[in-house]
């Protein structure tokens, strides 16, 4: 009976993690470039009571007998599906339509990657994130620029007084990974490379499998509120079912303890 208690308890722990994951997805439904998490579970080891194939006289047991010991959290995977693009009035709001990440440089010099293209310019005209991290490769907009635009191929141009043609300031590159789900989320809409993600593959937009850049747009979260609500209800019911199993096992155990011989 104690086995049933611990097995059901493992289910409650797993569903609590599932609810935590869903709650984080819903909390970030309006976070630019956010990618939703999906919890995966694995069954625990089995206690084998009778092994299949055990000899019985001239024959053998065709089907074994075992009992599972519960569930555990297997993984939490980011789903990198495309989010909806929303138009803005800022020419430095950039959205990636397709595969790829923007590369930024952290204060310690480490490269980080993001789908959040809400870029600004700092006091020196350098293109940075909202937290002040430089876009890589670093591009600087002249202080007297009257118009800045970014092409689908990542080319950044600016129009300055006295010039009829815009000046090219640089080109934004995109980064792909063999396994983007292996990236490590760091918060602030940033990811860093891991051994599981593979090495970064830097390329110009629209080349080597990378997507295009849409200037004046931001990519919204790919969280589906309807799907998450359904998943939340399912997780809640699963938690309640495991809770009921704990209660039932406790009642059966209490009955066994309180049984008196006549």
How would you describe the overall organization of this protein?
The chain is α+β, with helices and mostly antiparallel strands and 262 residues long. It has two domains: 114 residues, no CATH class; 135 residues, no CATH class. The protein is built from two helices and 22 strands. It has a three-stranded antiparallel beta sheet, with no helix packed on it. It has a three-stranded antiparallel beta sheet with strand order 14-15-16, with no helix packed on it. Helix 1 packs antiparallel against helix 2. The longest helix has 34 residues. The protein is elongated, with a radius of gyration of 27 Å.
Helicity, as a percent range: 10-25%
* Widest sheet: strand ordering: 10-9-13
Output the number of helix runs: 2
Structural class: alpha+beta
Instruction: Give the N-to-C terminal Cα separation.
Output: 23 Å
Low-confidence stretches: none
Strand fraction equals 25-35%
Outline: elongated
How many domain modules? 2
Rg of Cα set: 27 Å
Task: Summarize the main sheet.
Answer: 3 strands, antiparallel
Q: What is the total tally of β strands?
A: 22
Helix-strand pattern, N to C? HEEEEEEEEEEEEEEEEEEEEEEH
What integer is the average pLDDT?
Answer: 93
Structure summarized in a few sentences:
The protein is of the alpha+beta class and 262 residues long. Helices cover 23% and strands 32% of the residues.
């Amino acid at each position: 009976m104690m086995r049933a208690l611990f097995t059901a308890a493992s289910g409650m722990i797993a569903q609590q993690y599932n609810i935590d994951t869903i709650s984080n997805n819903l909390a970030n439904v309006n976070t630019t470039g956010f990618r939703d998490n999906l919890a995966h579970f694995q069954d625990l080891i089995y206690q084998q009571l009778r092994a299949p194939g055990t000899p019985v006289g001239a024959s053998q047991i065709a089907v074994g007998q075992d009992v599972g010991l519960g569930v555990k959290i297997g993984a939490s995977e980011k789903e990198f599906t495309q989010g909806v693009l929303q138009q803005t009035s800022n020419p430095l709001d950039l959205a990636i339509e397709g595969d790829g990440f923007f590369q930024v440089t952290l204060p310690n010099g480490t490269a980080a990657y993001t789908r959040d293209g809400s870029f600004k310019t700092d006091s020196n005209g350098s293109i940075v994130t909202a937290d002040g991290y430089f876009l890589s490769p670093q591009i600087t907009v002249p202080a007297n620029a009257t118009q800045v635009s970014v092409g689908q191929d990542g080319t950044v141009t600016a129009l300055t007084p006295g010039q009829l043609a815009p000046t090219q300031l640089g080109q934004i590159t995109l980064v792909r990974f063999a396994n983007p789900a292996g990236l490590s989320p760091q918060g602030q809409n940033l990811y860093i490379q891991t051994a599981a993600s593979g090495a970064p593959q830097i390329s110009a937009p629209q080349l080597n499998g990378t997507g295009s850049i849409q200037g004046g747009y931001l990519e919204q979260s790919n969280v589906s509120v309807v799907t998450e609500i359904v998943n939340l209800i399912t997780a809640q019911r699963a938690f309640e079912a495991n809770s009921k199993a704990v209660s039932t096992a406790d009642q059966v155990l209490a009955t066994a303890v309180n049984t008196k011989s006549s």
